[in-house]
Structure formats: structure tokens, C-alpha cells
Design a protein that fits this description.
The chain has five helices and two strands, in the order H-H-H-E-H-E-H. The protein is mostly helical and 110 residues long. Helix 4 links the parallel strand 1 and strand 2.
């Protein structure tokens, strides 16, 4: 499960969102080293939208190969859901819906 019963997030539930240094509770479980090939810009894009999308599409939705998923809204969370669904398998059909043509184009690119 990706749900923490005693969740603490710097900048949300505790100080430290913009700090140069911050103490992270249970760092042995909650902190990972970035591989050298992942830039800071790429790592910053992972945020909570990716874990939220993973929980929605894989854990709750239980998306399987051969199924169709509809994603309503192609902002940060919606595009993360598109990426998670695309990674779930080659035979997954993704229907991404948004009122913005630009957002829909981005979903198609992914």
C-alpha cells in the first residue's frame, strides 16, 4: 500500500518545504537516492501526483492488460495517470479527456 497512517510532508504537515536542510521522519524508509542519470528537474516532476495516480490506476482501479481506462482531466495528475496507464502494458487503451486541446495533445504525446 502507498498509504501512510502517520503521513508527514515537509511544507504541508510540517515545516521545511523551502528549507535548504530538513529532517525527514523515518528517512530510512521515506528517502531514496536519485540515480545519477535522473536530473533534479526530472526528480521534481515525480512529486505526489505520481503516487496518487499510481494508487488510482493500479491499486484502486486494478488496471489490467487489455482493459480501457478513461482519465478525465489532463493536468498534472491526469497526465501522471496517463503515464502510469501506458506503463501498465501494451494492450491498455487510454481515453484521456480534457477541455483544453493543448492538454489533450500532451496526453497523446505520452
Amino acid at each position: 500500500s502507498t498509504i501512510c497512517e502517520a503521513q508527514a510532508q515537509p511544507g504541508f504537515t510540517m515545516p521545511g518545504g523551502f528549507a535548504e536542510f530538513v529532517s525527514i521522519p523515518r528517512a530510512d524508509r521515506n528517502v531514496s537516492l536519485m540515480p545519477p542519470k535522473v536530473s533534479f528537474l526530472q526528480a521534481a516532476a515525480l512529486g505526489c501526483r505520481m503516487t496518487t495516480a499510481y494508487r488510482a490506476v493500479i491499486q484502486q482501479g486494478r488496471l489490467q492488460v487489455g482493459e480501457t481506462v478513461a482519465i478525465f482531466g489532463c493536468g498534472g495528475l491526469g497526465l501522471a495517470a496517463v503515464m502510469i496507464a501506458a506503463a501498465a502494458g501494451d494492450n491498455v487503451r487510454i481515453l484521456a479527456v480534457d477541455t483544453s486541446d493543448e492538454a489533450c495533445k500532451k496526453a497523446i504525446e505520452l
